[in-house]
UniProtKB/TrEMBL annotation:
Single GO term (MF): heme binding
PROSITE patterns reported in the protein's UniProt record: PROKAR_LIPOPROTEIN (PS51257)
Organism annotation: Pseudoduganella ginsengisoli
Identification of the protein by name: DUF4214 domain-containing protein
InterPro entries noted in UniProt: Cyt_c-like_dom_sf, DUF4214, PBS_linker_sf
Signal peptide, first to last residue: none
Domain DUF4214: 139-209
Amino acid sequence: MRAFRRSSMLFMLVLAACGGDQSTPASKQGGAPRAMQGAPVRQGDAPAFITFSGNASQYTVVANASGFAVTDIVTGQSTQVAAGSRLRFADSAIALDIQGNAALVYRIYQAAFNRKPDLPGLGFWIAQMDNGVAQRDVAANFITSEEFALRYGANPTNLDYVTKLYNNILQRAPEKAGLDYWLDVLNRGATNRVDVLGYFSESEENKGLVAPAIANGIEYLPWGSSLPSKPVADYVAQYNGSLSGGDTGNLTIIVNSSGVVQAGGHINGPNVDVGGSAQLAASGRFEMDYGGNGQALTLKGSINAATGVATGTWANAAAKTSGVFVASKPVPQQPKLFPQVQAIITQRCVGCHSAHTTFPGYNTAQAGISFDTEAQIRAQAALIKSEAVDTQRMPFGNATGMTQAERNTLAAWFAAGTPQ
């Protein structure tokens, strides 16, 4: 058996302050020592971040032969990145070194505490290992934590300790040969509990158990950062969108002033309506049961307060289908500009420029130019801009009293490209 590399670094860490309670579902045939070997991965500087503007929930990350494809589910744009990359999003980060430090931390974290690592703690320990701390030193800190004592007992016997390693990490009872082996080496002092935890964490059996959870990257919070924290008012709105992937359908998400997220919609496959609710976190994240009419889905995602877009994933465990969702605030309808422009032209210019002039002293349209119809106004748009907006020479002597606010409205119409 190969022992873990021991770091010569001395560091004092307060576990509670950095999410120190971390675990990784581990594995390994508990029998032969050969099966429990786990070679440490060489440490080194962390790779530079590849940055993306949206929340992590706005992207899918999928492993492929060339590394990973990162796809924006809002725009459909896909970016190919190399294996081992680190991705930075608006709210969190994803590590793609699933054979490197991030994976080592994830596994030892889950092995020690039999739970998914928390994002801040995971980020802290990834940073430590990126800076040269060995996985064994991480394990030694975990073993002294209160959470570990609650999980394994304050002073367990070697039998209790090894049995719980099998239960918590490999999710099974120990086989006799493996149990006898580990009890023997512990009772003889040939190894210690820290190293045994590490062996289980890095066993092939545990790597296989953890692999599906990290195959497409490991989400974490870089050390020194935090999730966004916004007041509920920043999210209050209705978001309309759709589901795609293994099934399709429509989706409406409503966030009320209490921060309750209510979702409802229709799934096309089974042709049923579904719904659910959850409490929105200050980070804009939410996770809910979403179902009804015999369907049971989960929705997990976030709302980006800056863009007004809700994104995430959905899964239907029973139907073995999954996919993504995108919902956004309705774009406010801008008032049409042309009716305002036509009203101004009619009031200030048509008196002189019309087939039926009304301005005293004028019997025909001046210079042969009429503004009676939309087509006539649009045909003379360049002239109107030059005379009424740029030089402000017209109306002549401003006899009809065109205001600056009206000229500004005309200018806005031209700036917008003379829309409807």
